[in-house]
Write a structure and sequence with these properties.
three-stranded mixed β-sheet, 8 helices, binds 6-chloroguanine, alpha/beta, 35% helix, 19% strand
Length: 235
């Protein structure tokens, strides 16, 4: 059964373009995932199709109105158990652990809903009514939740078994369990020499145990130097 991913946005074209490209697109064509992009404006309640307005009490920026947002989610949602994510810089920070938790929840429900905020934010009553999981992709501010939603979808879909060509490659990437949360080693491909720079000799040795040991060392050294926060005390 393929996982249904529903993205609710005021900018559907921005989402569609990415979801049909590369590995995310291939996953859909192979039937491993199914994308639905919902234009929140279709749920506007007035003839001008208004979806945002000025904040009560004044202040800069526009606020997304509660009715179109709530009704778009309710129309899209098929399973009440499905996770609803609201993309917002106020949310919990995304990491690979959260990705796997969301994938697990989404797989169980058959569905995940991603709501993209835009402008200054969403009427708080919509958030209270929908009780979404609020997720941020990092400590910086973007103009909307579309890019963050695509980040979440990419991170999720690549963890669906069979989506990546080589089923091992997700397991060995940075931040995943197989590397104990360490960073990747450096990688090389042809040509063997470029502008006077040769590749590490061990990689040409054909000695698989030595190559593995070298990669592990590089991975540890890199993590120690660049991301000491990822190191266990015993490494
Ligand atoms: Cl989820 N939304 C916006 N607008 N900015 C962000 C973000 C989300 N995560 C980091 N920055």
């Amino acid at each position: 059964m393929s996982l249904s991913v529903k993205v609710l946005t005021l900018f559907p074209d921005m989402i569609r373009a990415v979801l049909e490209t590369s590995i995310l697109g291939r996953a859909a064509r192979q039937g491993q995932v199914d994308y639905t992009v919902v234009d929140i404006r279709d749920f506007a309640v007035d003839k001008h199709r208004t979806v945002d307005d000025y904040p009560y009490g004044g202040g800069a920026g526009m606020i997304m109105m509660a009715p179109p947002v709530v009704e778009a989610v309710e129309a899209a949602r098929e399973n009440d158990e499905a996770p609803v994510l609201l993309m917002t810089p106020q949310g919990e920070r995304l990491d690979e652990e959260l990705v796997l938790e969301l994938l697990d929840q989404a797989s169980g429900a058959g569905e995940i809903i991603l709501l993209c905020g835009h402008y200054k934010g969403i009427d708080e009553r919509a958030i209270e009514l929908l009780n979404p999981r609020e997720v941020s992709i990092g400590d910086y501010v973007l103009t909307g939740g579309e890019l963050p939603a695509l980040v979440v979808v990419d991170a999720l879909v690549r963890r669906i078994p069979g989506v990546l060509g080589n089923s091992d490659s997700a397991e060995q990437d940075s931040f995943t369990a197989a590397l104990d949360g360490r960073l990747e080693c450096p990688w090389y491909t042809r040509p063997p020499e470029y502008r006077g720079r040769e590749i590490p000799e061990v990689l040409l040795s054909g000695h698989h145990a030595n190559i593995e040991a070298w990669r592990r060392e590089q991975s540890l050294a890199r993590t120690r130097q660049r991301r000491p926060d990822l190191m266990d005390d015993d490494q």
